[in-house]
Model the fold of this input.
Amino acid sequence: MTAREILTLQFGHYSNYIGAHFWNIQELSFDYTGLVKSETNPDILFREGKTSTGAVTYTPRLLVADLKGSLKTLPSTGGLESEEVEEPQWESVETIEEPPAPKNEFIKDINSDSEVNTEEKDYQLDQEVNTWTDYVYSRFHPRTINIVKEYCHGNESGGFDLNISGHSLWKTDYGDNFADNIRRYVEECDSMQGFHINFDCTDGFSGLALSCIEHLADEYNKTIVAYPIIASHFEDNDPSTPEEREKSTLKDSTRLVNIALAMEQLSEHSTMFVPLCTSDKGWRKPGHARKFEYIKYDPAKYYHSSALLASALDTLSQKYRHRDNLFTLSDLCADMTGYGRKMASASLGMPIALNESEYLIDFLNNTTKPIYQSITPSCKIATDKIFQLITVRGIPDTYLKAPPKEAKEQMNLPAYRCNNVKEMFELYFQANNFLSATNMTVCEKPMDIKTPFPSIFSPELNKYGFVRNNEIEEKVQSCPIVTGYHNGNFMADMIEKLHREVSRIKIAKLHKFKEEGLEAADYQESLDKLAEFKDNYEDDFEL
Done:
């Protein structure tokens, strides 16, 4: 079995919140007993290595970029007790020692020499998480962490807030070292699929990620799937004074310009890109939080909203990480990006709101609302004339339909002839999506819900994530999920909204962009290219 390796790159603080949950989900679902067969091949995202003492390590194939002061309790070496053999990293040279950041109880427990059952303890992470390293379970290879020392996390003045600042940073030693680390990972791979790139597209990490993507496109003949990410909330979203409103408007305009520049550049250099946000608008302000039945989360808490996006990414990627499936990143892009439509949308249904005593055939027949929510900003996913790749996980075949002796009215439904979960969902989407092409993937296992995943599930769910019909409250331990990639003419509306909003901004009033080197003519050219990109979605096509 070939590894079909993927290298993941994370740029920015909110993207690293998502990454912390994503890697926690991977590691905490590992079976070290060998008794449970995993549906996914862990070697796709992880690499095996050895420490200087000869101990075997298993770490994510990952590079992380964040600002100075963001790591807190996680050392820049990645947190392994005994570092892997590695050449010295330029960013690890530090002459000024700062006092160590205090560790919360969860971090103390996972770093303890004695084994602690974290599932039996009630941590107060909602109140204690101040950065993504406050709940990250995974430990990383020494080359993983790449700190930007020119900028400080949380610094309001002189912050890393411009797309063009990230492009400039890539041209320094930082970019050279980051590119070297990419090369080392790629050289270790036998049959590499390509790259996952998750990045904050509202600040300087947007330009840094896009410069890196351009480098990848030039240097490696590999598939590049990018997720430009907009945080669920910004601190300036609720101004209360005229001065705060003026400051918020300026920051909003800056973020909007960064987003537009990122989308245009992604349309040129990536193989496929999927914008993500748990709020409905994304621009100018993130907007109202998307609502998920049986989940209650605080959009102002990155610890909460990032868990939803991490769950989506984990499930979306199941198809090309499957042990027995030869489907790859390249196949995904070939299916989803025809006619030059490199940008797709994504959806999440978490949990699939099936009652514990209900059959899937009845649930799908009786539901009157979509089983998923869009998690792409300013995007309402169409139901007709679309391409989509749907992944469902965690619905046992025993929930499919009643046996013939008990079926009664079920036997009158066409879906009763379906023999498995995949066939039934295929029929459901065939009935609900006119002139559309749906590629279904079904995974037997649900997503495991383990500490430090936030406690955002309704008490109405049982431990398997189904709606319970008794009075016994249980802690949710797993969750059935549906996700989807979607593409079609409907994406033109999203691009039009973005282009219309950003075209209202007078770039000359955003002095910092000009000071950093963005010329008005180059900016206008980018907006024109964005408008041209929208045209790819406006011509009718036949499936």
Observations:
- Residues 82-96 have pLDDT under 50 and may be disordered.
- The longest strand covers residues 145-152.
